[in-house]
């Protein structure tokens, strides 16, 4: 699965220039990823394979969160309030309500967010100067790629007939959000 558009070229220079803000947002993203994994587990406890996968994912995302928090501390930054993420909110708005559709949509939206995060973290890995940060972001980008693939596998299993058509609809929405939302000093 590849995303339908690249991140606009203006995002990376701004992210590097205002990296402290990006780092704070990144911590909030990892926090939301961990919470979201547990919320999927809570909402669909009966779904084969999902509970264990989400428990492991929540643990891994919490690990990322702890690492980003350590970087914040090192730079004298604090987490503060979450300013919200119009990109993720725009995608979550696409989730349909009946339980089967809701499960499929939540899995596919999660996959798209993970894959976009992978792209952005890879851009940071290539664009930042500090070798430690470059390595850190390259490692995290690899993890987010794995999470994107995990969500796609779960989506395929949950709706073998419907997942592909729905994925292409949601991928179009995702690309539109990336192209149309203002660029922020944030992961998305
Ligand atoms: Fe993560
Ligand atoms: Fe992730």
Describe the structure.
- This protein has 188 residues and is mainly α.
- Helix content is 74%, strand content 0%.
- The protein contains seven helices and no strands.
- Helix 1 packs across helix 5 (99-127), helix 2 packs antiparallel against helix 3 and helix 5 packs across helix 7 (163-180).
- The radius of gyration is 16 Å and the shape is globular.
- The model has no long low-confidence stretch (mean pLDDT 97).
- Bound molecules: fe (ii) ion (FE2) (2 copies).
- Residues 33, 61, 114, 144, 147 line the site of one fe (ii) ion (FE2).
Major beta sheet summary: none
Number of helices: 7
What is the 3D form?
Answer: globular
Task: Please give the number of β-strands.
Answer: 0
How much of the polypeptide forms β-strand, as a percent range? under 5%
- What average pLDDT do the residues reach? 97
Order of helices and strands: HHHHHHH
Helix fraction by DSSP (H/I, runs of at least 4)? over 70%
Distinct ligands, ions and cofactors found in the model: fe (ii) ion
Task: Give start-end ranges of low-pLDDT stretches.
Answer: none
Radius of gyration over C-alpha positions, nearest whole angstrom: 16 Å
Class per helix and strand makeup = mainly alpha
Terminal Cα span: 19 Å
């Amino acid at each position: 699965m590849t995303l339908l558009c690249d991140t606009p070229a203006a995002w990376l220079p701004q992210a590097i220039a205002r990296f402290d803000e990006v780092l704070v947002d990144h911590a909030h993203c990892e926090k939301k990823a961990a919470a979201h994994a547990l919320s999927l587990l809570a909402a669909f406890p009966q779904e084969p394979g999902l509970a264990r996968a989400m428990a492991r994912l929540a643990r891994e995302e919490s690990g990322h969160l702890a690492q980003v928090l350590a970087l914040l501390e090192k730079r004298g930054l604090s987490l503060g309030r979450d300013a919200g993420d119009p990109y993720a909110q725009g995608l979550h708005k696409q989730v349909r309500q009946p339980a089967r559709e809701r499960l499929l949509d939540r899995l596919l939206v999660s996959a798209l967010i993970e894959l976009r995060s992978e792209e952005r973290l890879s851009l940071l890995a290539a664009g930042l100067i500090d070798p430690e940060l470059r390595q850190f972001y390259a490692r995290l980008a690899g993890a987010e790629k794995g999470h994107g693939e995990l969500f796609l596998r779960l989506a395929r299993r949950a709706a073998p007939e419907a997942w592909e058509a729905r994925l292409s609809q949601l991928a179009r929405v995702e690309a539109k959000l990336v192209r149309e939302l203002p660029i922020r000093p944030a992961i998305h």
